[in-house]
Amino acid sequence: MATITSAAVTAVTAPFNTSPAYSGTFIPTVWSSKLNVKFYAATTFGDISNTNWEGEIKSMGDKVIINNIPTITINTYTIGSSLAYEVPTPNTIELQIDKAYYFGVNVSDVLEYQAKPELMDMFTGDASNQMKIRVDTECFQNCIPGTAHASNLGATAGVISAAYDLGTDLAPVTLTASNILAKITAMASVLDEQNVPESDRYLVISPYERNLLMQSNLAQAQFMGDSSSILRNGKIGTIDRFTVYVSNLVPAAAAGKDYAYPTAGTVSSALKRHMVIAGHKSALTFASQINKVEHLPNPTDFGQLVRGLIVYGRKTVKSEALVTMQVAG
User: Fold this and answer.
1) Which helix (H) or strand (E) holds 286?
2) What count of other Cβ atoms lies within 10 Å of the Cβ of residue 169?
3) 188 and 324: one domain?
4) pLDDT of 169-224, one tens digit each?
5) Are residues 279 and 291 in the same domain?
6) For 19-44, what is each residue's pLDDT tens digit?
7) CB 131, CB 10: distance < 8 Å
8) Residue 221 contacts by C-beta under 8 Å, 6 or more apart in sequence?
9) Are residues 194 and 246 in the same domain?
10) Which residues does 218 contact at the CB level (< 8 Å), separation at least 6?
11) How many Cβ atoms sit within 10 Å of the Cβ of residue 166?
């Protein structure tokens, strides 16, 4: 059995005192279903990854064994020659469900839920948003860095051509409005050289890159492929087969490899480093489950205590379908 590797927790409180005192019946099933729906709608990492093995989660500490399809050898045939046979040996990847966060809410003397549904919506919405931030932060910072294929990053990216400079720790790419599109298409070409499918590709950028895009030719809605407003999960449109997301949680510089921000009013390439991420949904797997949402009477006051637990696991399972670019900005 795996153990919880993250000691951090999310605690959400609701210090409400209302009159008359609450006297109705609390509905715990509403919490479970509404929180699950809201959490998925707001999660960027969950949107760019697959959930192929999520149904196999049962409880904290579960381990899912993922079988990779073996590569079959193709031999040259000669008439009259003996045929060679191989025994396929698939390799496996272990997906540990070993991360967990919780929330706790004191629903004390609130008005009847059936008469004030927006109150429960507020609790549920905030709890799900805080869960999103904690889970997305952990996944982006700890799952992606260092897990892309060796030919999908660095100054000589491209498994065939080695022709694309996607930056390194100490020599990050400086993006501008004039070169950002070329760098994005370079990331697409890196995936092309790995024979990654064109559908279900994504690009995750920071607000810094989004601002550069808005100054480029893609400022026009028809180029972005989506004239609607940005969704809660940060999806803003499409560029060169990429569905584009904006996130403040993209991985930052590694310890000791940070860059100082330039002096106000000046332009400098010595900016804080972070990652731009591109890939296919097959690259990352994410499995989560709201294991328990329960209520119990407050032993020291009138009202109810509500608490929820989420357990999840995440892993890069196809490194060749993930591309990272080190960016100064």
Assistant:
1) strand 284-297
2) 12
3) yes
4) 878 899 988 899 899 999 999 999 999 999 999 999 988 888 888 877 665 444 44
5) no
6) 444 444 444 555 566 666 665 555 68
7) yes
8) 227, 237
9) yes
10) 181, 224, 239
11) 26
Determine, yes or no, domain membership for 250: yes
Other Cβ atoms less than 10 A from the Cβ of 250: the count is 24
Give residue for tokens 């407003």.
229
Regarding whether 156 and 252 lie in a shared domain, the answer is: yes
Residue labelled with tokens 């919490």 = 31
Alpha helices in 110-156 (DSSP H): 117-143
**Token output for 50:** 């697959």
Q: How many helices (H) and strands (E) does the chain have?
A: 6, 11
Distance CA 290, CA 130 (A): 14
Burial class (CB in 10 A: 0-12, 13-18, 19+), 130: middle
Q: Is the dihedral of CA 273, 275, 211, 135 positive or negative?
A: negative
Domain membership of residue 249 as a residue range: 150-284+320-328
> Which position has the token pair 């009159």?
19
For 261, half-sphere exposure in the C-beta direction (CA atoms, 13 angstrom radius) is 3
